[in-house]
Design brief:
With 329 residues, the chain is an all-alpha fold. It is built from eleven helices and no strands.
Length: 329
């Protein structure tokens, strides 16, 4: 009965607000999974900026404190708690790879370099003891093998093979990445939409009442957001806006986005876009927009910075691919 009443009163605007909010929730739940997997796959966290993660964590702490202070619905509080635990997991993983694994790798490289230098020195000493005539004969015998010019042609042919196979391989890699990211985004949208539909049919989701406009003469002070919660909301918005600046600067300084998950930032863009859309589709009343202004700034404002990172992926992606092929050669 309650479900039929809800369906009778449900407007398309309210439905879109609920669907966008549910998609945003799904995007935030799976947000950090791609970057966690990227770090694990490379056994490195050199691509991600630790200041970015720490400032983002401060924003999530402020968001959680504001949600508790404002006594928001339990789902919002539970999601804020999940954010904090997910942040801690990613930070600990990055610290593990940066401080422990990388340190062991550097020590191993130093030992290998020391052994290589000592081996080179021994080879040089044995070469100096070899008679000059013997070295000339050896060099002449090696260089005279085969027809004239065969050495140059072989080198040229072998050098052209990477150029022939590199472009199709790179195209396949790009196509595979596009398909993976697109299917992941569509899957998140499907999960969010299905989750909203199930919650609505079960009566677990109902349209939130429209906020009262102070100009209407209705006293709405009892249901207003506490000042401290609003301050924390603005603090979290500032932290979210400032968190990406160290990452953007790191990418620009290294001229590389290697080690970063593009899907991580795509999910962030999807979550921010649908979160802001959910608020705007719910109501465009000035009083309602003013109450939600911190969250609108935090969500819609970071989309500009996410787009900046996408531009960096485009600009530095070719350089990263060339560097990877050079290492393989």
């Amino acid at each position: 009965m309650a479900s039929s009443l809800a369906s009778a009163d449900l407007t398309s605007q309210e439905a879109l607000s609920g669907i966008f909010g549910s998609i945003s929730l799904a995007a935030w739940i799976f947000l950090l999974v791609p970057q966690l997997y990227e770090n694990y796959r490379h056994h490195s966290a050199d691509g991600i900026s630790l200041p970015f993660l720490f400032i983002w964590f401060v924003g999530d702490i402020a968001n959680l404190a504001g949600a508790l202070w404002a006594k928001l619905v339990p789902t919002v509080i539970a999601l804020a708690i999940y954010f904090c635990f997910a942040d801690v997991a990613l930070i600990l993983q990055c610290l593990y790879y940066k401080l422990l694994v990388n340190r062991g790798t550097k020590d191993g490289n130093k030992e290998a370099a020391r052994r290589s230098s000592s081996s080179t020195a021994g080879t040089r000493e044995s070469g100096e003891e070899e008679p000059l005539l013997s070295r000339r004969e050896s060099h002449h015998s090696v260089s005279s093998i085969g027809l004239p010019g065969s050495h140059q042609r072989t080198k040229s042919a072998s050098g052209s093979l990477p150029g022939i196979t590199e472009e199709p391989s790179r195209s396949r890699s790009i196509l595979k990445g596009v398909l993976k990211n697109t299917s992941s985004i569509l899957l998140i949208c499907l999960i969010g939409t299905a989750g909203w539909a199930i919650a609505w049919k079960a009566g677990a989701w109902t349209p939130a009442p429209l906020p009262q406009d102070p100009a209407s003469g209705i006293d709405d002070t009892a249901s207003g957001t506490p000042l401290g919660a609003e301050i924390l909301g603005y603090a979290s918005a500032v932290a979210y806006l400032g968190a990406r600046i160290p990452q953007i600067f790191k990418n620009w300084r290294s001229r590389s986005c290697e080690g970063l998950s593009l899907l991580f930032f795509l999910l962030s863009l999807l979550g921010n876009l649908t979160y802001g859309a959910g608020i705007l589709f719910h109501s465009l009343q000035p009083h309602y927009l003013l109450v939600n202004l911190p969250w609108l700034i935090g969500s819609l404002g970071t989309m500009v910075e996410d787009c900046t990172i996408f531009v960096q992926f485009h600009l530095y992606g070719e350089r990263d691919a060339e560097g990877a092929s050079a290492v393989v050669e």
